[in-house]
Amino acid sequence: MKRPLVLLVCLIAILLCGHFSAAQVPINVAGLKSGATPTPTPFDACFNFRSSSGFVTDISPCVYVLKTDTYTGSPIRGGFTFGWVIENTVFDVDRNNANDPRLAGINYVAGTATAWNSNDTYFRVDLPATGTYVVHLAMGDSFGQSNMNAEIRDTTTDLSFAVSAASTSGNHYLDATGADLTNATWPGSEIGVSKSFGTTQLRLYPGSHSTSDVTTIAHLRIVRIS
Fold first, then answer.
1. Per residue in 3-13, pLDDT tens?
2. Does residue 109 sit in the same domain as residue 207?
3. Model pTM?
């Protein structure tokens, strides 16, 4: 009768030893074994430009942007820190609530017809860290527009990222690559552009530098990938 009891005690000891050994495997806070490369902090900031908050329902993580959303250095909505700088030159309109919510309205800025300078109106988004981000864009309107221009900068550093001197028909939108898409095809066909940021400040400068025509911004999205 003693032998089964001894075997039982040994079995329990083996199981306990195995448990403690497994618990001692180094694991970092991201749940990866020691030495593994952690993924970057997720960041997906999505902005739909229009004139009134309730015109359409935004799909998370998107938030609406009005011309009165001036940059303050503090989160405005959705946990994102963003806003217009030199807001008095920005206008906003609700356009078509039958469109995808990302294309339902616009904020727009008139061109300066002068060379780019750091005093131009821009839309600012604070990034969580330096790194590589994919930028998505929708420039267009329910009505035709001419000579639109938008430039993305790393604070004031030129990233060679511009959609310029472009005209669109009604209900056509340019994506970040400059492709001209309809309101029906943009949601499934638009393509983002990947850029590396050496600072934590993305600036979108809208407005032509050759004419006074307006540039209409419907949507902006920034996704961190590294």
1. 544 444 444 44
2. yes
3. 0.81
CA–CA gap between residue 133 and residue 118 (Å, rounded) = 22
Distance CA 111, CA 173 (A): 18
Same structural domain, 60 and 104 = yes
The span from the CA of 168 to the CA of 42, in Å, is 34
Which phi and psi (to 5°) does residue 215 adopt?
A: -115, 125
Cα dihedral 71→75→81→86 (10° resolution): -10
Residues 59-89 pLDDT 10s: 999 999 999 999 999 999 999 999 999 877 8
With 70 as the cut, is the pLDDT of residue 38 above it? no
What residue type is assigned to position 192 of the chain?
G
| Pair (118, 200) in one structural domain | yes
Smallest CA-to-CA distance from 195 within 164, 152, 163 is with 152
Structural domain of 5: 1-38
Cis peptide before 61 (omega within 30 of 0): yes
Asked if 57 and 31 sit in the same domain, the reply is no
Work out the number of other CB atoms within 10 angstroms of the CB of residue 220. 27
Same domain, yes or no: 199 and 173: yes
Task: Give the count of domains, the chain.
Answer: 2
The CA-to-CA distance between both ends of the chain, in Å, stands at 64
- Is the same domain home to 22 and 5? yes
Tokens, residue 208: 């032509």
